[in-house]
């Protein structure tokens, strides 16, 4: 079984923002695989289903980005999964150009507070992650204002395509392995 967690903030006002691209990825995965993500459990909205022949839990933590680890820890403990082998976390990255993916088997938080909190709660950096580029903040902008902003119209097709690639990457991770996904999508 895999748990796929998309990071974001739960209030409606954050829908469609750069920081909520993890939630957008979960919605895309859910829609493509006919999974309803509508059950509140483990401080998250979750949905159970099958993707690429594998049982999955799709999750959107309701704890706000910076406390995502609370929800992830509950999910990992309840479903008794090995985070290094069965947890995939999807989130935004301002160091990547819009729509670009970067897949890793483990690593540091890289300044991302949601990932920092997950590492703290799991006590490990060993979990798979898919970072989706949202672009660098313009000079003079506050980082929070930038990531809580929406994508400009001209970037929307790039982001839609990236979300489709995230779904493909998840399938490759689950049917082959993380290395195959990194070779194909990085």
Structure write-up:
The protein has 186 residues and is an alpha/beta fold. It has one domain (2-185): Peptidyl-tRNA hydrolase (Rossmann fold), CATH 3.40.50.1470. The protein contains seven helices and seven strands; from the N terminus they run βαβββααββαβααα. It has a seven-stranded mixed β-sheet with strand order 2-3-4-1-5-7-6, with helices on both faces. The longest helix is centred in the last third of the chain and has 20 residues, at 156-175. It is globular. The chain starts with a strand and ends with a helix. The model has no long low-confidence stretch (mean pLDDT 95).
Question: Can you name the CATH architecture?
Answer: 3-Layer(aba) Sandwich
- According to CATH, the homologous superfamily is Peptidyl-tRNA hydrolase
Shape: globular
Mean pLDDT: 95
CATH hierarchy class name: Alpha Beta
Biggest sheet descriptor: 7 strands, mixed
Low-pLDDT windows of residues: none
Number of strands: 7
Q: Which class of secondary structure composition applies to the elements?
A: alpha/beta
- The CATH topology annotation reads as Rossmann fold
What layout of secondary structure does this protein have?
Elements (H helix, E strand, L loop, with lengths): L1 E5 L14 H12 L6 E3 L2 E8 L2 E8 L6 H12 L3 H4 E7 L7 E4 L8 H10 L5 E6 L9 H5 L8 H20 L2 H8 L1
Parallel strand pairs: 1-4, 1-5, 5-7
Antiparallel strand pairs: 2-3, 3-4, 6-7
Explain briefly what this protein structure is.
By secondary structure, this protein is an alpha/beta fold. It contains 7 helices and 7 strands. It has a single domain (2-185), classed as Peptidyl-tRNA hydrolase (Rossmann fold), CATH 3.40.50.
